[in-house]
Amino acid sequence: MKIYRNDSSAVNGANVWHAPKSNSSNIQLNADIVSKHRPDLDPRGAKFRVPSFSSLQDITAGKSIPIDVIKDRVAVLLQRMAVERKLKSNAAIPKLIARIFPAKGGMDEIAFNEILDTRNRSIIYESVLDAQTQVKRGDMPGIKQALDEAAVMSAAAATDEQALKAVFGEHHLRAAEIYQGITQKLMELSSDIAGKITVDYNRDGVEIGEAGSALFARQTIHLMGAVASQGNAAETRFTLIHEAAHLVANNIDDIFYYNTAGYKSLPGEMRIRNAAHFEEIPRKKKEEKDKAERDKKAQGGKKNGPPKPGDRKTVAPETEPAPAPVKVPDVNDDLRTAATVAIKRCWTTALNVFAVMRYIKRQQLEKNNAPFERNKGNLRSYSIELNLTMHEQQPDQMAITNLDLTLMEGIAHAFHLVKTRVYNMEFDKDAGYSEIEMVEKAIVQQLNHQQLLFADGEKNRKVFRWLYDNIYNIPIRIVK
Ligand SMILES: [Zn+2]
């Protein structure tokens, strides 16, 4: 998706990237935390973040975490942010840490403000309570209109036999039924926005690459703030169609995201179970419509018409869209597909750990401590494996701090970023390596090279391994 833009040189064509649903039998679905669908965002909009000054000051003053651990973890966060050029200072990280945490003790707010743009929410993590909340009043009419228009698009797709056959082959009749179901679900959502849709206004979704999620059991969807406020009108509609597809049948999953490796070669019987394939007809129709309008304008000589919502603002209205890059057949394609799948797997595990932590934290802030008490052992083991702070705290004072939340968010964000590097990966095809070993080496090399996780390469390898191995072991069931 191209909802966010900035001036970095991230890889183009980072399209849609969703997590598979949690499908292990030991995972009990819980509507508050299980995310089923996570479309990709252009990672150029996502940033590594730090807790606010007051939050860090509270953590430091609490004395539950040794000060050296706090400094070490803040250094990790600043290092990741430096990669994205989000610090106001170019000084070396140890120097910045020494300024924020002066030798005399405590913290220096002036230094903190000199290093970080503290008014920017994409840099400062504010509150987990804002991360799943009701649609703001101001966003209501826009969401309603988007849902209604998406329903019209879906209804049109349901009756377009030619397009259905082109995308779904012999399964076109089932696809038509699903499109009818999507239309119905979109109308139901539209008639109960307050009851069925929640929004993330804390930007967690942007940071970790989660634009939306859908929960079949409760027939609800969760949207990223920018989707809710229509950062890109057309993408918002495609996202809504995608989410609604998950609500039609429980077996409609995320096998491959729109136009990612593997998407185009998916057979028809799998396409009717892959939500992203239901974006295809509406996307194609929008492209045709845009082209027809451009042609009409060109004929009429009106070359400078006003841009419409959904137009990329970087493209002048009279300009033809850039041709899609020619895909050169590549002997590494199988390995790249395997790497894509492996990164998605790690990213999903990281998202689930982050979701569990956020959920427990939210419950605590709302005075329900039971999920925390039940999951202390799990939290401690995540902390050890993923280098958070909980295992370093005084055991009787253990808490999920905003430092832990930003560290965990950063890990999810790192895997979100590294997937845009798949096409730059070098695979070391030593005869002795298995496929997963070749993939692991390539991914860890990218993590090291981009400095996205930790300075220590062996630590990065262990984090990769743990996330890869534990995809089905995160106990999503944290309430009864
Ligand atoms: Zn999905």
Automatic annotation (TrEMBL):
UniProt-listed Gene3D superfamilies: Collagenase (Catalytic Domain)
Region described as Disordered: 281-330
GO MF annotation: an example: metallopeptidase activity
InterPro entries: MetalloPept_cat_dom_sf
Compositional bias segments (type: Basic and acidic residues): 281-298
Protein name: Uncharacterized protein
